[in-house]
Amino acid sequence: MRPGGLEVVAHTTVVLVRHAQAERGTTDPGLSARGRDEANAVAKALAGEPLAAVYCSPQRRARETAAPVCAELRLEPKIRDGLAEFDRRATEYVLLSELRAAGDPRFDACMAGDLTPWGIDLPTFRAEATEVLAEILATHAGGRALVVTHGGVLNVLLGAAVGIDRMWFFHPDNCGISRLVADTAGGVRVASVNETPHLPPPPPAA
Fold first, then answer.
1. pTM beyond 0.90
2. Are 171 and 151 in contact (CB under 8 A)?
3. HEC sequence for 178-206
4. Helices (H), the chain
5. Which of 47, 92, 109, 149 has the most crowded Cβ, counting Cβ within 10 A?
6. What is the pLDDT of residues 171-187, one digit of tens each?
7. How far is residue 176's CA from residue 186's CA, in Å, rounded to a whole number?
């Protein structure tokens, strides 16, 4: 108890990071040269935080983003399928911006929460991500853990915390940092969304 009788609540913090910029042209791409710079930058930004564990999507772009943080903290990443993006079964890696520019009907479907073109539905996608979050909160109660994942996963987890039922409500930057905080009563709130001051400046326009 604090002076005055105020109860000290042991909050649990989950630090969420979207993967760094990926290379183009492969089904499960690793990071581009800029992506490696972004991953190193986020590792430096988080180096002073008392992270007890690093959870990561199995997709290569996420694992390579987590690698510098894990090396800095001497932690092995905990790979969880539920942190994979909705395109996990796709035969190509295509950005949503590219689908929109091409007039591809998959863009409008995705914006409406229809993930069936990628072989999964929104309730399943959300449930899988939420299950991993529940595991993290139970395992690291009162502590702090890092999750390296994807834009879709970030949207469903942060959206659920603020009561948004639709698929998308913000566009996370590569290696943007967001934070969820849970209290001992089971309440989860959003502490920050898409922190980016740690990132290198964008390349000059061509």
1. yes
2. yes
3. EEEEECCCCCEEEEEEEECCCCCCCCCCC
4. 33-46, 60-73, 96-101, 105-111, 122-139, 151-161
5. 149
6. 999 999 999 999 877 78
7. 26
